[in-house]
Amino acid sequence: MAADLSARDVERAKFAFSIYDFEGKGTMDAFYVGDCLRALNLNPTLAVIEKVGGKTKKKEKMLKVDDFLPIFAQVKKDKDAGSFEDFMEVLKLYDKTENGTMLYAELEHILLSLGERLEKSELEPVLKDCCDEEDEDGFIPYEPFLQKLCKDVK
């Protein structure tokens, strides 16, 4: 699986791995697998991290860089993350009037209760930064929200 990586990807993965090698022994605690993958511009869910060997407690398992490269390759290859177009199709389901708007409260509810759960305190800054103001009926245009949310996602 690591053979699927370009030389540049291997170099980037080794560099990110070295950042999480806190003791300089060529090992990384599996607790930091998700952080290391996110440092490589990937967005694995907690379920994906657990599936590839990430741990929820420190000092349960240590990985060498040769153990990490196949994990990086697998997560990099995984296409379950969704794209801007996928998210647009989902939010269109909540566009009752088919005019590109949805209820702000409904968007908030979706983000708090579906998929990987967020706390309201985690969601508030995202909505503040990415959402336009609600109109008098509580609606927001959802395309600008997604554009801002997905702007750095490749």
From TrEMBL:
Which domain of life does the UniProt lineage start with?
Eukaryota
Query: Which GO molecular-function terms appear in the entry?
Result: calcium ion binding
Q: Does the keyword Isomerase apply?
A: no
Q: Which residues form the EF-hand domain?
A: 8-43, 82-117
Asked whether the keyword Repeat is assigned, the reply is yes
Give me the Gene Ontology terms describing cellular component: muscle myosin complex
SUPFAM superfamilies with a match to the protein in the record: EF-hand (SSF47473)
Q: Which UniProt keywords apply?
A: Motor protein, Muscle protein, Myosin, Repeat
Q: What InterPro entries does the annotation carry?
A: CALM/Myosin/TropC-like, EF-hand-dom_pair, EF_hand_dom
Q: How does it assemble?
A: Myosin is a hexamer of 2 heavy chains and 4 light chains.
Under which name does UniProt file this protein? Answer: EF-hand domain-containing protein
